Fold:
Amino acid sequence: MADLINKQILLKTRPVGEPKESDFVLVETPTPEPSEGEILSRTVYLSLDPYMRGRISAGESYAASVELNSVIVGGTVSQVIKSNHPQFQVGDFVLNSNGWQTYGVSKGETLRKIDPSQAPLSYSLGVLGMPGFTAYAALLDVGQPKEGETVVVSAASGAVGAVAGQIAKIKGARVVGIVGSDEKRDYIVKELGFNAGINRKTQELYPALKEAAPNGIDVYFDNTAGVILETVLQQINLGARIPLVGLISQYNATSSPPGPNLMPLLIKRALIKGFLVSDYQHRFDDFLRDVSGWLHSGEIKYKEDVVLSLENAPRAFIGLLRGENFGKLIVKVSTEENGD
Amino acid sequence: MADLINKQILLKTRPVGEPKESDFVLVETPTPEPSEGEILSRTVYLSLDPYMRGRISAGESYAASVELNSVIVGGTVSQVIKSNHPQFQVGDFVLNSNGWQTYGVSKGETLRKIDPSQAPLSYSLGVLGMPGFTAYAALLDVGQPKEGETVVVSAASGAVGAVAGQIAKIKGARVVGIVGSDEKRDYIVKELGFNAGINRKTQELYPALKEAAPNGIDVYFDNTAGVILETVLQQINLGARIPLVGLISQYNATSSPPGPNLMPLLIKRALIKGFLVSDYQHRFDDFLRDVSGWLHSGEIKYKEDVVLSLENAPRAFIGLLRGENFGKLIVKVSTEENGD
Structure:
């Protein structure tokens, strides 16, 4: 497929602190040929997620770093344009990990087919994909909210937080969301049905939480760590559970900031547990059944923030780490074709 | 019993930072009479434990603060000298909580009789009492060490740590203890059979741990928090478990110090869980059976640091918070009588 130009965004320099657009570079290369058992696909949607900040750092994480001058990793919805694998036909849509490029070659066995009649294609990167699954498993398996308990969610209008909060609501909890703008606060309360919302940029967190969670906090779904975690710890109830799902507050930090004093964990016999969704594959079918059902019944609402064109991915990603997106951030890389 | 003079140590002023002897005052008062259902007992042994530092502070903890001008709380082994309760006879030994005083009146139903033929009386305040039970339940129920895993214990020659490390050894783990002197390091390695010991005052912790725990850390039995916890977190394995049993490093702090950065919890999907032994009463019989057995078989060794006379309790307690004791700190308040 040497006639197809593959646009790729490579990691040019490792960001120090907040990434800059100059840390990324767009290149054009020939599109590779798929070998036996492989497929070539065109990226339709690229997911942008906070975890990618860790991948473009040199430090240890739960997965290998992206090498310099390599394509940045990322989940994609892709359409098959050439198949050397019997299970995939040209035109099929697949959940893939092409990363930040317009075309990619993948081994067939690593792919999952997506049925576009079930839900919008891009949902497989959000509410019905990794972020939604993270929300589901971390909330239910680690947080374990009981009816009447209070659940606090940080980054609550984001791809993970919004789903976590709505599932907590479905399970009968009082749900408080922490967000970064009044618009997002209105959204989680008025659209998503959270019991209360806090704008961390304009409200003083400790008293705002006291007011929003008058009976104390039983579950804290932590996407951020930092000052929010520290403040929440001062208001947890006996036996509180804190799934640590993300540390957005420090992804751009140039040195490792201190964490919260842990005395409240002892006093309240509470737990903090690091969460990574890949440990919960055995729950994927439950997730897909439950969350698909809640989407269809309207109990879960879902909002996307779609950026057009791969070229805009770096700027959108930088904004994501600043909390500038509103809803699940997705890049529309190309148009899906109906095959007619 | 107005003819008996009761010596009491009262909290005179709330300590700021490290307690001073002048924060305590010794008074002599008449000994009260037991009412119906109560017993009067003479304190034979008083236990001194780090948790008492929290009780003499004003801040929130898992139990109420000691009021100013009140007797400091504390577990005791006491001998009944007058009984208005049918289950207790004069001369019986009981596990009690007379606190820092020579006599105390207690409701009979709050007491447990101790059989002095089973083990030395004072063991009920240590290896066969609250500290030993803490070690047992926090290690086995939260830490859950598996054979061949590496367990690190801080304050490892102390009343809790020494028992935790030896139980981990019995369960087939590689055990590393962190202590505050060469003498204590020799003790835990040569006497207690720990695989390695680290003197945190003379050794650099990170490389010393790397060497002592070359396969990483699976369980960290945390008595201290602070810099030890922070360093351990950098060397934990996937799925590590950290029972947070004490925060000795900060009990004398005048303001709440920051804690460790929690990124390693996420990367390693590890957990920290606050532990309080009173939540594990259902395990007490298991504990007493197992640890008594290991004591008799010689698999668990036990060392006491006995201070004579109630007057010396404040100084001994101050030393305990500095790590100056060597073994379980006990005050011998009076001599037990055989009743003959």
Observations:
- Residues 130-143 of chain A form the longest helix (14 residues).
- The interface with chain B takes residues 60-62, 225, 229, 244-247, 250, 256-276, 279 of chain A (CB under 8 Å).
- The radius of gyration of chain A is 20 Å.
